[in-house]
Amino acid sequence: MKALVLPSILVLALFYLFLPGCTKEYVEDINGVCFERDVLPIFLSSCAQSGCHNSIDQEEGYDLTSYESITSHGIVPGNYKKSKIYESLTEPFGDEIMPPAPNSRLSSEQISTIALWIEQGAHNTACSSGVCDTTGLTFSADIQPILQTNCISCHSGSAPSGNIDYSNYTGVKATITDNSLLGSVTHSYGFSPMPQGANKLSNCDIAILQAWVQSGAPNN
Questions:
Q1: CA 183, CA 108: separation in Å to the nearest integer?
Q2: What mean pLDDT is predicted for residues 82-95?
Q3: Residue ranges of the domains in the chain?
Q4: In angstroms, how far is CA 127 from the centroid of its own chain?
Q5: Taking the alpha carbons of 147, 99, 48, 171 in that order, is the dihedral positive or negative?
């Protein structure tokens, strides 16, 4: 009998030793996340590229460009582990891995954000302070994040949509000169409304872009 006790204890110890590594928990007890501020930018920048899960292509029937389309299927509010979208983001291998190769996988922090949002009920929250600060704007801190979230998925790389590259200042500057940047994001007559197939930029984001352009569009 004693001969069986030691191996049993050893097996149990090994089980608990390796268990955390096999069942990594993404939901942590941290402050709540907001859909518009924290979650939507992840989907737009990582999943809504041309040919993927945008409102036009809707690969595999998924449109990940708005709250309504994201929560229409693949999300089980209050239970991230049963949400198909979460499963795809955390699959270690297989055909359902998202984003698919050669794209980079989401970071643990990004996955945590999505998981916590789902676990908290997958609500359409903005968490805006109500104040839009358009003073002291810089290209690197204020303009690039807006473009990264809403435009880079289409307008970057070796063959950017419309031959417009928003991944660098030079490309952005060209669309300021011909007024196509502001014309597109404000949905002005004569310009193609952007982002294509997605929600219009928030009033604050548009105000920030306008104020930066009016200040001379500095590369700072």
A1: 37
A2: 86
A3: 35-119, 139-214
A4: 17
A5: positive
Task: With CA atoms as reference, report the closest residue to 59 among 93, 103, 25, 116.
Answer: 103
Pair of tokens at residue 4: 């069986």
Structure tokens, 99: 């984003």
The full DSSP string for 18-73 is: HHHHHS-----S-PPP-IIIIIHHHHHHHT-STTSSSTTT-GGG---SSHHHHTTS
Residue whose entry in the numeric block shows the structure tokens 């548009």:
206
Name the token pair of 88. 């795809």
- Tell me the pTM: 0.57
> Which region among 36-45, 94-103, 132-141, 154-163 has the lowest average model confidence (pLDDT)?
94-103
Predicted pLDDT of residue 106: 85
pLDDT score of 84: 93
Q: Is the pLDDT of residue 11 over 60?
A: no
Furthest C-alpha separation in the chain = 86
